[in-house]
């Protein structure tokens, strides 16, 4: 799976208390899909504040289950003159009406669709909600592009790219993403911090802890590109790890 | 008054030495230092420049180690870290006994006191494992009365007039001293309204206010990133471990920024929080330990139903 494919299947962790940035992300995705000429399919009800240029097709979660052969939806859209499919899906509603396991299968089917067809997917997970309760699922299925209000984590074969700010409100996202990385990666890993603008002490600690676990497993781990304030947090945390009180 | 290393005693022997003149300082310290040098014990001195010169002239021994420059005491957290490394290195080299004459900064030297008072209490724990005779000289001519009181409560031993050291009846167990310590507010807090005030903010909102406040100072007066980090950590602790409402206030003048983060909880239960490297103490300790190394001063104020942290950034020394 290459980076382009995985970034076509995006995950969005939507904070219920958020300032509206995650809503903007939904609107932006929607407009881009419309501009690409894709048929917009929605699963669940997500408020769209942007101007709807195309009619949305409401789908049932079962339509996207592998057993329903969702590729047929793409063929139909192409036959109707669309350039492909844009799928907007609310994970909380899917899991509420089906199950975690069912949603897991749907996510897998969507990744396959993005790999083989002109399909873009945005999966919205609420926090609090399945974005906290089933964070593993959100992380696992959106390794190419997982967004939270303050943070974006993008993972490829040998790079974890951390952009934005990490604090107590989204530390679990970084932690879960790095844990998934530790399980899945090989011997070389770069954690790219060039777009990280803030790391709390807890975030710096989580980074060092996962890097240490990976190194103990024989991997070569590089923390790369940290700007001075981020580097300072990492350095102080490293000092504290070297000389525990 | 002669400070002597106690005989047949293991662990950290932490003594206060009060003096009223240069002669009294030398009368007490020179024999203590010479005894150590004679026994080829590592003997270290951390005094102000003038007192160091006096001692150097009086002792004139090449093995006497004067700590200065990078090892000078900037803040109590990095001082503890440096000293523990230094003491551990001497022990690893085979030292069976180490002597230190170390002056602790206080307002008489132009330094804030609260965090150094906590240092004096905490090192009874932090250096306990080392075979260390540690004499802390206080010049009564310049030491404020409140500082002398804290010194009496934090040193288990006192250098006595008859040349020995005696147990100090006023010594308090560090935990008790540290958890029951009131602190007076920073002058900036009492003389002006806060520039920013937030109730139960998200950490992100607190960081934005911290940066906006730092930006009100002249460029490079304080390190805005340090202010943001320290405020974030204090707010994180309050939101995670404290009780609502969490109140953040920020003051600034042309050369000073003060942040206060208060909640209705009892404060961190760890009395040494902020002073000791904290990886094993959970994230609360880690953030406050970092703050101690970024700020010019950190104060803890505990009352029965509230806890507040004061973070001070002075422009004079570039924010630390």
TrEMBL record, chain A:
Record-annotated STAS domain positions? 159-245
Q: Per its UniProt record, what InterPro entries does this chain match?
A: MlaB-like_STAS (IPR058548), STAS_dom (IPR002645), STAS_dom_sf (IPR036513)
Q: Which Pfam families match?
A: STAS_2
Instruction: Please give the superkingdom of this protein's source.
Output: Bacteria
Name assigned to this protein:
STAS domain-containing protein
Q: Upper lineage ranks?
A: Bacteria, Bacillati, Actinomycetota, Actinomycetes, Pseudonocardiales
From TrEMBL, chain B:
Q: Which domain of life is it from?
A: Bacteria
Q: Which CDD domains match?
A: HATPase_RsbW-like
Q: Does the keyword Kinase apply?
A: yes
Q: Give yes or no: UniProt keyword Transferase.
A: yes
Q: Name one Pfam family in it.
A: MEDS
The residue ranges of the MEDS domain are 14-156
> What InterPro entries does the database record attribute to this sequence?
Anti-sigma-factor_SerPK, HATPase_C_sf, HATPase_dom, MEDS_domain, RsbA-like_anti_sig
Task: Tell me which residues make up the Histidine kinase/HSP90-like ATPase domain.
Answer: 204-304
Enumerate the UniProt keywords alphabetically.
Answer: Kinase, Serine/threonine-protein kinase, Transferase
NCBIfam families in alphabetical order: RsbA_anti_sig (NF041045)
Name it. MEDS domain-containing protein
